[in-house]
């Protein structure tokens, strides 16, 4: 455009709009869902004219915009600490200090203290050796605050890995002893054997740790045993069995302490872990329903409220799904079992799909308001200048109006006002009824958890609290009947109001048409929410009335399926789901893998070289490189233990802890490496300082040490369990604090090295710091794997997956077979949606860690990547919501009309959309500039005529929102049809925004652009 578009309308409002070049692509940003500020003002002002407070507030806000003032820059970059900041921190601590969290902290502290007390028993300490303090390390990693099944599984794999490492180390020590000369302490052949076994074992553990989640904690046990045994047995080969015994026994004591405390103190299982997540999920459903019905086209708009609530719902669902999977793996003693949990989760996910329509209506409205606020640079109230005789809005632009634009050209605003006055009160009543039923579900679910957490000795406690009178009281006596009455009342009130409306006029044509579609989408989604809630209310009521006693429930998933738990990584409290390779994803989706350089191997020789080529590619993979780096740093740090001039000080300074710390401090990305480097260095220093303070307070007294350690551990575990970022340093602090005290106490009884507390703290801190620093240096060089690049690659594959998901959705609409009608229930579709959502969660995590990566080559455009993640997340919800909407169109003429509109033989819409996904994915993956022309269909008839997306969809929008009869509004398929139209239109809107963001990142092909301009 040569100038801004000026809009003169019946209302006394004229808006002059300029758009930011970074948001708008090179084509005219023309979409059928883009509402002007004038249009929103006229539509909302009419329906809220009766609300004096709202009108006063609305006009007050616009009057503020008439005289904009330049905001002053803050004088201070960092805010001064004030009482409000202190109060905010206090409120955060009090929010976290709940009774469930207190139980987790107490359980962890008791097991931690119990393992330390075992080390304080002198006969046990002398019988086992100096390795008794390793039981404290095991408690830190095998935390008793988890569920019993999860803890048993981790402990079992830890013990298995410990025995495997013991056998591997004994094999290496035996071979080296056979090759070594009898009277020669240092032998080159023995050195090679020890280094070889240590390197191979480290490589295997490092690769398995990152690719196979059950072996994460087992790798820690195996690493400690291999490092200490292979280095100490090289100098003292005759004491190899004593060395192995002093290492292996504490590996068994630590998990035993955790399991014992887990059973005796508030035992938790799958149900006690699942129900709190279900409670939070249902509560987030209530919040979303309340906010959506309160703000949607009614009240002063609260920016970003709905989007934040929708993300909260998704996070809660992810936690719920994780708890559900744990419930399928363990034995529980409760009122509900794994099958019940599986069915409840299925119903909750189904309800979330219907709630997605409500969230979508709010997000679309939010986007429209946001675009209006960010693009509006001048707003004028024209008073008497407006034409009082104008019945329609007149538009003056420099270029012909697009066929997609239906602003003010068709329809009557009074019809939209009438529909709003009809639907708004009955939707509010139905929403309140749904919220009440959800609250009843929460109460009944909490009752299912009662008496599930009490330990066996609770019945012997004489001072039990008496239950309150309302302890087992529900919100509603018959929630299912109440909900059915609310739905029936909603339908009756709707029919009566529509009958009165259509008594005067046989047809209506609401305007603006996009607001009408939003209204129909909201009403249809709310009705679906109520219907899906009925199933959830029914099963919860049945369970709450029939399950009055507890019983044992055994997992239905076989043990072998639990072992094949690949792809999930829990990295210091951050759970990550790893992507499969591109070839694995293509094979899973049924795609053929092509190599442009060669044809597929046809004989045995070619197949041999092909497999060798695959092995070579595996060595270049990031996980193999990660394992090689671990092996290299371990080998380099252990070399002093096998040299004549350095083995003594290596043993004195406990150089083995440098090796163990290096293995534990490796991170897959640069941002994670920087975070772990800083956090672990701070943690080891704080742990040593706390140990010095505790020792000086108690003067080495055994009872004082036990008491002070328990008090300190309460604080340390509370910080560790409640802080996401501090987990990387908190675990080192929890380990270093008791180990310094344990070594000092052992030295006082001539066990271990005879050093004082300050020397022990300095040596241990030095050794651990060397290992952490070595791991950080090896992470940085050579070839650091930055999180910034990983975010870009993952976003590229996510965009490609969305293209696959969209092609599946559209094919289910176009294909005329019955099997395609239930695509959303198929396993492939659900797995793909789950994989995309997990990938987006990883991208958010990696993006948050990029702040720790130094901007060496330039500043990182974090805002653009954050915006891109929000766009792709919204697109996934749109595409899955489109497929869910098709269920209401099965077997109707409305589905045939949509299939006809999107038929590739008649419309290039699908081709352009899928091509856009492919080009954007390729451009991000390979940093290729985009072409200067538009990669998605323009809305102009001069370019594509009747084949353009905007033309065909706009025709259906006009047709759908014009000359509406009562039969249309009473037909459920009509509401689904309107919902599908608005979702399709908004998907195009989001894709245009995605193109603009990617174009700002990768640029435009300059030479082709010059040719096109020429």
UniProtKB/TrEMBL annotation:
Positions of the Putative ER transporter 6TM N-terminal domain: 184-498
Alphabetical UniProt keywords: Membrane, Transmembrane, Transmembrane helix
Localisation per UniProt entry: Membrane
Residues annotated as transmembrane: 127-143, 155-176, 188-205, 217-235, 247-266, 623-643, 673-695, 702-720, 726-745, 766-784
Primary location: membrane
Keyword Transmembrane helix: yes
Domain Integral membrane bound transporter: 647-778
InterPro entries xrefs: ArAE_2_N (IPR018823), BRE4-related_DUF2421 (IPR018820), Brefeldin_A-sensitivity_4 (IPR023244), Memb_transporter_dom (IPR049453)
Pfam families per the UniProt record, alphabetical: ArAE_2_N, BRE4, FUSC_2
Protein name, UniProt field: Fusaric acid resistance protein-like-domain-containing protein
Native species: Glomus cerebriforme
């Amino acid at each position: 455009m040569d100038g801004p578009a000026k809009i003169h309308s019946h209302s006394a409002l004229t808006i002059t709009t300029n758009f930011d070049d970074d948001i708008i692509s090179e084509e005219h940003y023309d979409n059928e869902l883009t509402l002007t500020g004038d249009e929103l003002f006229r539509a909302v002002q009419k329906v809220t004219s009766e609300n004096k407070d709202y009108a006063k507030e609305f006009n007050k806000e616009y009057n503020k915009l008439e005289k904009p003032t330049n905001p002053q820059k803050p004088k201070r970059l960092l805010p001064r600490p004030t009482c409000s900041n202190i109060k905010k921190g206090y409120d955060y601590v009090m929010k976290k200090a709940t009774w469930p969290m207190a139980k987790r902290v107490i359980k962890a502290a008791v097991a931690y203290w119990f393992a330390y007390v075992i080390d304080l028993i002198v006969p046990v300490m002398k019988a086992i050796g100096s390795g008794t303090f390793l039981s404290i390390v095991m408690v830190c990693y095998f935390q008793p605050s988890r569920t019993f099944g999860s803890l048993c599984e981790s402990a079992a794999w830890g013990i298995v890995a410990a025995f495997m490492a013991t056998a591997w180390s004994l094999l290496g020590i035996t071979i080296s002893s056979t090759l070594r000369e009898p009277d020669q302490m240092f032998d080159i052949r023995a050195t090679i054997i020890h280094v070889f076994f240590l390197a191979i074992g480290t490589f295997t553990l490092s690769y398995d740790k990152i690719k196979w989640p059950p072996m994460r904690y087992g790798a820690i046990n195996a690493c400690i045993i291999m490092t200490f045994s292979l280095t100490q047995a090289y100098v003292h080969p005759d004491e190899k069995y004593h060395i192995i015994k002093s290492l292996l026994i504490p590996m068994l004591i630590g998990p035993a302490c955790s399991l014992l405390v887990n059973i005796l103190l508030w035992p938790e299982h799958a149900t006690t872990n699942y129900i709190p997540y279900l409670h939070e999920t249902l509560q987030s459903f209530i919040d979303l329903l309340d906010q959506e019905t309160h703000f949607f086209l009614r009240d002063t708009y609260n920016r970003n409220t709905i989007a934040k609530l929708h993300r909260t719902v998704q996070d809660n669902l992810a936690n719920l799904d994780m708890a559900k999977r744990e419930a399928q793996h363990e034995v529980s003693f409760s009122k509900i079992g794994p099958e019940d949990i599986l069915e409840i989760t299925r119903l909750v996910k189904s309800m979330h799909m219907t709630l997605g329509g409500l969230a979508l209506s709010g997000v679309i409205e939010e986007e429209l308001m946001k675009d209006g606020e960010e693009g509006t640079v001048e707003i004028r109230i024209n008073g008497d200048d407006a034409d009082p005789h104008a019945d329609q809005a007149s538009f003056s632009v420099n270029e012909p109006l697009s066929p997609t634009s239906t602003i003010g050209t068709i329809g009557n605003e009074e019809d939209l006002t009438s529909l709003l006055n009809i639907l708004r009160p009955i939707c509010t009543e139905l929403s309140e009824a749904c919220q009440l039923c959800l609250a009843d579900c929460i109460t009944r679910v909490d009752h299912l958890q009662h008496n599930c957490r009490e330990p066996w000795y609770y019945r012997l406690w004489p001072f039990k609290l008496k239950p309150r009178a309302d302890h087992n009281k529900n919100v509603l006596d018959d929630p299912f009947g109440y909900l059915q009455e609310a739905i029936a009342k909603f339908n009756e009130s709707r029919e009566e109001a529509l009958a009165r409306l259509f008594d005067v006029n046989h047809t209506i044509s609401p305007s603006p048409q996009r607001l009408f579609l939003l209204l129909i989408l909201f009403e249809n989604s709310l009705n679906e929410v109520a219907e899906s809630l009925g199933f959830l209310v029914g099963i919860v009521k049945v369970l709450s009335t029939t399950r009055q006693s507890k019983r044992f429930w055994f997992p239905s998933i076989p043990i072998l399926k639990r072992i094949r738990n690949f792809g999930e990584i829990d990295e210091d409290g951050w759970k990550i789901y790893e992507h499969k390779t591109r070839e694995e994803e293509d094979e899973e989706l049924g795609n053929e893998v092509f190599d442009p350089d060669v044809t597929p191997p046809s004989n045995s020789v070619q197949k041999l070289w092909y497999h060798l080529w695959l092995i070579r590619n595996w060595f270049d993979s990031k996980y193999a490189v990660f394992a090689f780096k671990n092996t290299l740093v371990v080998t380099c740090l252990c070399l002093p233990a096998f040299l004549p001039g350095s083995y003594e000080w290596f043993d004195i300074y406990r150089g083995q802890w440098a090796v163990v710390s290096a293995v534990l401090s490796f991170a897959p990305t640069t941002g994670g490496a920087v975070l772990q480097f800083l956090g672990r260095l701070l943690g080891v220093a704080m742990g040593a300082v706390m140990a010095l303070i505790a020792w000086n307070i108690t003067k080495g007294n055994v009872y004082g040490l036990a008491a002070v350690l328990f008090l300190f551990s309460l604080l340390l575990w509370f910080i560790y369990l409640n802080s996401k970022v501090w987990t990387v340093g908190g675990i080192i602090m929890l380990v270093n604090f008791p180990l310094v005290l344990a070594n000092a106490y052992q030295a006082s009884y001539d066990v271990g090295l005879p050093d004082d507390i300050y020397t022990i703290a300095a040596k241990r801190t030095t050794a651990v710091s060397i290992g952490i620093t070595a791991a950080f240096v090896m992470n940085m060089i050579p070839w650091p794997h930055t999180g910034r690049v990983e975010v870009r690659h993952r976003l590229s594959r996510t965009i490609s997956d969305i293209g696959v998901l969209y092609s599946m959705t559209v094919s289910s609409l176009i294909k005329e077979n019955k099997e395609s009608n239930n695509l959303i229930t198929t396993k492939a579709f659900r797995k793909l949606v789950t994989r995309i959502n997990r990938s987006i969660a990883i991208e958010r995590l990696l993006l948050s860690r990029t702040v720790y990566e130094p901007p060496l080559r330039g500043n990182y455009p974090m805002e653009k990547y954050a915006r891109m993640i929000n766009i792709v997340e919204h697109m996934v919800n749109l595409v899955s919501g489109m497929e869910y909407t098709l269920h209401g169109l099965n077997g109707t003429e409305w589905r045939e009309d949509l299939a006809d509109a999107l038929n590739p033989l008649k419309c290039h819409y699908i081709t352009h959309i899928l091509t856009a996904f492919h080009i954007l994915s390729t451009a991000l993956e390979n940093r290729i500039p985009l072409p200067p022309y538009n990669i998605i269909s323009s809305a102009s008839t001069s370019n594509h005529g009747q084949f353009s997306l905007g033309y065909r969809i706009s025709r259906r929008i006009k047709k759908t929102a014009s000359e509406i009869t009562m039969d249309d509004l009473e037909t459920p398929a009509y509401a689904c049809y309107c919902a599908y139209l608005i979702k399709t239109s908004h998907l195009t809107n989001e894709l245009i925004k995605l193109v603009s963001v990617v174009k700002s990142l990768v640029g435009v092909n300059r030479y082709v652009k010059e040719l096109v301009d020429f």
